[in-house]
Amino acid sequence: MTDTAMMPTYARIDLSFEKGEGAYLFSTDGRRFLDFGAGIAVNSLGHSHPHMVKVLQEQAAKLWHTSNLFRIPEGELLAERLCEASFADQVFFTNSGAEALECSIKVARKYQSHIGNPEKYRVICCDGAFHGRTLATIAAGGGEKLLAGFGPAVEGFDHVAFDNLNEMKAAITPETAAIMVEPIIGEGGIIPASYDYLKGLRETCDEFGLLLIFDEVQCGLGRTGKLFAHEWAEVAPDIAASAKGIGGGFPLGACLATKEAAAGMVPGTHGSTYGGNPLAMAVGNGVLDVIMASGFFDSVNAISDYLSKELESLTNKHSDKIDLVRGSGLMLGIKITDAYPVGSVITALRENGLIAIPAAENTVRLLPPMIIEKTHVDEAVAILDSTLSAMAA
Ligand SMILES: *Cc1c(COP(=O)(O)O)cnc(C)c1O
């Protein structure tokens, strides 16, 4: 790593880019890469999408920021559109995923206090989850790597095994306020929850008077071929956190909630100086213009079916190197056998022109932009195939 004035919290790859176009990135040293990482599921419409460039430039020439002291019509519109298309009635806009989760946790605690249960403040989360890097969200994640050295973990988070309803039920106490789960674990290795589990969580929350929070920061906003991944299970949460793809590359997050769940969030209870400013809202509306257009999710589903089938053939061919492929839509994980550390696979793929992202469980994560076509899938699969073939144990 080169020594720079930036705080060295990232193990950065010694590579930088000067431009992006659709599913491709062009490095400052003149190479072209097929980008199946999309800035960690953020560049949901690829790079320099013409509609996104247009909405950003138009808004940039008009108005960037006014603060939340005033009404923001672009934000009211975006909130209305998100609610129209989802379980939610209200939205709070943030600048990141972690802030969307912070807001979700606050909404849940406030709800319980508001309805006369101030003793209910704890949130049950899952092992292997990732909810962000703030003090509360590292406590929600619960992993030792996230928490080490940062003092006592923020109080109020309990942890159980993922996708295990019995454990979840057994962990509920009179102090439990909510259950918070990623419908598809992202950083933790691309592990989808079963639909029965998600349905069971809903029933459990209803039975015990708890709020159900889904962290859809990575899996949401179209990546699985529906606006939110939980729609596949036909389960609605009370609160959902969104970010990453919602801004298409502009820092934007959102906490969506039902009116009932957000009943305690009266003026003065939460805020953000930047959150939901006109520039961010224009970009968010731009993303929705594209992904909510009729037929868009059909094309996401068609291309992700094709990618999954190709990866299935790849798994059969390289059964000595691939344990399994899992995930949903354009959020897929290739779990590599332990003999081949995922870091070296990612490096080799990159050297061959494909950007993918490592995840836990020795998993190669594919999070391509939703605008990919068959030729991009063919190119990615060919690079995966030749890279795996060339790898010696
Ligand atoms: C990335 C991520 C977060 C944190 O988002 P930031 O924008 O980095 O704060 C939270 N939850 C999940 C599931 C994520 O993938």
Task: Based on the model shown, name its key terms.
alpha/beta; about 400 residues; globular
Short description:
With 393 residues, the protein is an alpha/beta fold. It is built from 12 helices and 17 strands.
Number of continuous helical runs: 12
Number-wise, the strands total 17
Instruction: Please provide the ordered H/E string of secondary-structure elements.
Output: EEEHHHEHEHHEHEEEHEEEHHEEHEEEH
Helix content: 25-40%
Q: Unreliable segments (pLDDT under 50, ≥5 consecutive)? A: none
Assembly status = single chain
Q: What does it look like?
A:
The chain has 393 residues and is of the alpha/beta class. The chain contains twelve helices and 17 strands. The chain has helices spanning 38-41, 50-60, 73-84, 97-114, 135-141, 144-147, 165-170, 195-208, 278-291, 296-317, 342-351, 374-390; strands at residues 17-21, 24-27, 32-35, 90-94, 122-126, 157-160, 176-181, 184-185, 191-192, 211-215, 239-242, 253-257, 322-328, 331-336, 354-355, 357-359, 363-366. α2 (50-60) packs antiparallel against α9. The model has no long low-confidence stretch (mean pLDDT 97). The structure holds pyridoxal-5'-phosphate (PLP). The site of pyridoxal-5'-phosphate has 15 residues, from α4. Pyridoxal-5'-phosphate binds at residues 96-98, 101, 130-132, 182, 186-187, 215, 217-218, 243-244.
